[in-house]
Amino acid sequence: MLAGERYRDSDPELEAMRKACGRLLDRFNATRADDDAERSEILQELLGGVGEGSWVMPRFQCDYGVHISIGVNSFLNYDAILMDCAPITIGDDCSIGPRVQLLTALHPVEDHRARRERWETAEPITIGDNVWFGGGVIVCPGVTIGRNTVVGAGSVVTEDLPDHVVAVGNPCRVVRELPAE
Questions:
Q1: Region 78-98: what's the mean pLDDT?
Q2: 3-state DSSP of the chain
Q3: pTM
Q4: FRET label pair with 44: which of 55, 84, 111, 120, CA 20 to 30 Å apart?
Q5: What are residue 65's phi and psi, to 5 degrees?
Q6: Residue 181 has pLDDT above 90, yes or no
């Protein structure tokens, strides 16, 4: 799966990993509003890496957790869905709006039999430093978002975005450049 090869989500090892992840997510999502320390502890156990000063608001959902890395001082708002069948890397100082979806899984388009048999592949998502996603952004498999880029609310990102741009729409497209640091 992590090598980009075909896999089935019904593989017993993957099912066991998702159930273990689900148990941690149940604990995370059941925390009280003032349980910051407990949420932080659970995230350290759940995710592949969480940088200092980063936090995630409940309700949070992911498939495996261990394939997600979040840099320092980054924030994921309510209802984030990260389907981490391939690695998801979020840089430093990122702000991820509510109900953002980062989706790495792909299903066969032309091979109808393989789709019926539930074969999948996955491609990683990489988000550079100081990126801001408005609410409801969807990032598709294999996409890289450049540093200091802003993606407008409700955008569907199907292709890579460069550094220092504002991009919006469905499909998402660059509408203007931002000054470099």
A1: 98
A2: CCCCCCEECCCHHHHHHHHHHHHHHHHHHCCCCCCHHHHHHHHHHHCCEECCCCEECCCEEECCCCCEEECCCCEECCCEEEECCCCEEECCCCEECCCCEEECEECCCCCHHHHHCCEEEECCEEECCCCEECCCCEECCCCEECCCCEECCCCEECCCECCCEEEEECCEEEEEECCCC
A3: 0.96
A4: 120
A5: 80, -50
A6: no
Across all residues in the chain, what is the average pLDDT?
97
Q: How far is CA 94 from CA 68, 115, 132, in A?
A: 14, 35, 6
CA atoms within 13 A on the CB side of 27: 16
Amino acid in the structure at residue 16: A
* β-bridge partners, 82: 62, 102
Tokens 């609410």, located at residue? 135
Judge whether 62 and 19 are in contact, CB under 8 Å: no
Question: Given the structure tokens 């869905």, which residue do they identify?
Answer: 81
Give the pLDDT score at 7: 96
Instruction: Name which of 62, 39, 133, 61 is nearest 91 in CA terms.
Output: 133
29-44 pLDDT, tens digit per residue, is 999 999 999 999 999 9
Backbone φ and ψ for 16, nearest 5 degrees, come out as -65, -40
Sign of the alpha-carbon torsion through 69, 170, 135, 25: negative
The yes-or-no verdict on residue 111 having pLDDT over 90 is yes
Q: Which residues are catalytic?
A: 107
